[in-house]
Design a protein that fits this description.
Chain lengths: ~230, ~230
DNA sequence: CCGGCACCGTGTCCTCTGGACACGATGCCG
DNA sequence: CGGCATCGTGTCCAGAGGACACGGTGCCGG
């Protein structure tokens, strides 16, 4: 290896901001730290990048190890590298952003005896390192992206009602939407498959279920179609 | 330092995609490599991150060192970390994205005897490492961002004509725009200061000069205004 | 001096989109 | 069988965006 590389090197980690949605709120997955620094504090799941794995592989591995979690949607968020962001020394972290269907991911005990739990994104405990910044950045990204890419569906069960979908947007965007206009617009896109099923076990009139048509979206996307709100 | 950190570490670099605009084309700044690997190939300016500087500071420093360049607009683009992207070993690079006013940056000889030059973004030589991917990512970002943030002005001289501005958008977006609609829309935003000056040394009727009003934009932005194409 | 050339600068019309807005239908429960 | 909660639907209006053409101005060359 060239002499060029014999400088001291920073350590490199990945951290994941995993969002999920339940009936009440938008949630983020946190892990309670078992060791110093910030022992006992809550933090984003993450860890060191191995020499032979890509950054995204590292993110997936950490999610699997720390929360027994697999996710369909995982994208790079931002890289945080302030020299003093870790008290142990120079650590640069590549943050990732993931969406999971909370309904299908009941957390399993983490393999390394750390506690994992979902918190409302509007009400998290004090976080370790600069993870509050990372979370804020991720929220901003989610808010921005959900409007012009159909990623919101990653947060819902495969079959969902239009009300659920609308609640999703209202929660993420932090504003109310008009039901009629919302339905008009989303149905006009012709990306939802109307199923011959209605929701079960509700104590009022049951709503029709829909399914997002990924194939159709891919096609339309190629043809220059743009999803928007 | 904790034992946790005694894993082997990747090297970390920053690379910069610097865009400039001249009368003909959108340009990108490249540096010819003086050492192996890829000796003689053109590459993005960049280099190793020092242990005591932030990522953005590293990017600015490299731009200064390799091209004598300062830039107003510098933002993080993406982090590239495929295990085999550098033949010398594991090197992760944090790519940055910069815009400069080409009219005011005649390149000075680089301090470390490497050659620096501007190339049309549509016609670059074969690049070192995965820098072609980095450039493609940057172009995509520029195309996306220019429409909803007033960053295009960073590519123009402080005083410019509406035709120059329109040509900028046409070049970046790779499509033609209608002159009357473009002027109507951009002037309606009320972000351009109309000057009592016209361009000089043209062999036809001279066009009026305008200046972008950064202050006004900041105010409007706070008030919830959204710049859009 | 005059014509040609190149670019500057301007307004109308039409379509479509987006937002405001209310009520009858359905199904469960007590 | 009445009450309650949610479902599901259509109209109207204003504003934005896109299509579209021509007279004005200034330089240059003959």
């Amino acid at each position: 290896m060239s002499h060029t590389y014999e400088y001291p090197r920073p350590a490199v980690t990945v951290d994941c901001v995993v969002f999920g949605l339940d009936e009440e709120d938008l949630k983020v997955l946190l892990i309670q730290r078992g060791v110093e620094p910030y022992q006992g504090r809550w933090a984003l799941p993450g860890g060191f990048v191995r020499m032979d794995e890509s950054l995204e592989d590292a993110a997936r591995r950490e999610l699997e190890e720390e929360a027994g979690l697999r996710t369909s949607h995982l994208e790079q968020l931002y890289t945080f590298g302030a020299p003093d962001r870790d008290p142990r020394g120079r650590v640069i972290t590549v943050a990732y952003f993931a969406l999971v269907k909370l309904s299908q991911h009941h957390l399993q005990a983490s393999t390394d005896a750390r506690e994992a739990a979902w918190f409302s994104v509007w009400d998290t405990p004090k976080l370790a390192f600069d993870h509050a910044d990372v979370l804020a950045t991720a929220l901003q990204r989610l808010k921005g992206k959900v409007r012009y890419q159909p990623i919101g569906f990653e947060l819902l069960p495969p079959k969902f009602t239009l009300s659920q979908l609308q609640r999703l947007y209202e929660t993420v965007l932090e504003r109310e939407l008009d039901k009629r206009n919302f339905r008009k617009k989303i149905l006009a896109m012709d990306l939802l498959e109307e199923l011959d099923e209605v929701e079960q076990d509700v104590s009022h009139r049951a709503a029709r279920l829909y399914r997002f048509d990924h194939k159709k979206y891919k096609q339309l996307e190629k043809a220059g179609f743009n999803f928007e709100l």
